[in-house]
């Protein structure tokens, strides 16, 4: 079984589509209506569970709802907010940090508490904004760099445990992310979510003695 967060749209929805063709998938997100619509589209192999990942009780309920230990957890949840720093609103900055940093911490904390001694793979999807600085993306970069620091630190804590923690840094995709973030870009030449999902699934293939720990998916 696969657990995918942020699955109501974009990369998360595309991953749910691909993985549900071969295994049961639990999809999670904040938008109940979109989760239900995706479930209806993908069929019986998909189970929706709305969740506020910044809320401890909601995260606990999400994991309690799983019928058994997932083989893979893919965390795609997050949001964007852009603009020159001096123009950014305190409310929007706090929302950005909650949706990206707090949610990642709460999700990963619960996964580690439950599964660190099991062969579970946890995939933390960030952005190339966690690798390089970008003008007019200062707070977004700060949030993604924070998640990268979380991942790299928890990896050290998981040394000698069977749980694997994988960092994913996708570049620009043609998804609803941009319109929701308020940044207006011509995305017609960006990779689609389906393309990124296909590449990610291939990169996540592991062998008995090895796996790819850091994955960057650049657009062409």
TrEMBL record:
The keyword GTP-binding does not apply. The lineage of its organism: Bacteria, Pseudomonadati, Pseudomonadota, Gammaproteobacteria, Alteromonadales. Belongs to the short-chain dehydrogenases/reductases (SDR) family. It comes from the Bacteria. Keywords: Oxidoreductase. Pfam families: adh_short. This is SDR family NAD(P)-dependent oxidoreductase.
